[in-house]
Amino acid sequence: MTQSDSQGRSAFVTGASKGIGFAVARALAGAGYAVTLTSRRQDEVEAAAGQIGHGARGVVCDVRDPQALQQAVDAHVEAFGGLDVLFVNAGVGNFANIEDLTVEQWREVIDTNLSGAFYTVKAAIPALKRRGGYIFTLSSLAGRNPFAGGAAYNASKFGLNGLSEVLTLDLRGHDIKVTQIMPGSVATHFAGHTPTEADAWKIQPEDIAQLTLDLLEMPARTLPSRIEVRPSKPPKR
Question: Active-site positions?
């Protein structure tokens, strides 16, 4: 799908008030897509939509709430006449030794990163089926590589990878592509981190946005189903 083909098309991006979601939403809007951004905070998502411009819509939505997601997707379809690209990005991270990880922390991560992804896709499938489309799930290299203290996060991303692979099999007959993007270290505000100049070696959110646009340019016959992304030159340890 070339940028000239994107006119009249639309995209729905979760967790888009900052970081990867914001960069992807901005890139899609710049390429001609009508875009809806979601976030749990109204002030942040409205500010992000205003910064993007191009008629982008900022909507308050918690992906842990399937009813709210359905309402947000339905409003998007009503506003823009359909849905072509779904970028499943919303995610959180709680990291602790398994003995110290609380039930509440576990539930927050699983309900957001895994169940929230399911709810998002479930809400969007009817609209995507009407004219075909593309689903991107933002996973992580942590979906293949476990690490100490990562019980909840690893489990959520391992699960998201499995969900993404099943989506490919279930939806390919409806001309819906599914790609799981699995980055390593990205310079974002994830898990309370504040990006600084010291993060210059990391993947930048704009890099994932460019990758998304590049994948949309792929011929319809070809599907890069899993993309692992790493910093090209991490610091020596």
Answer: 153
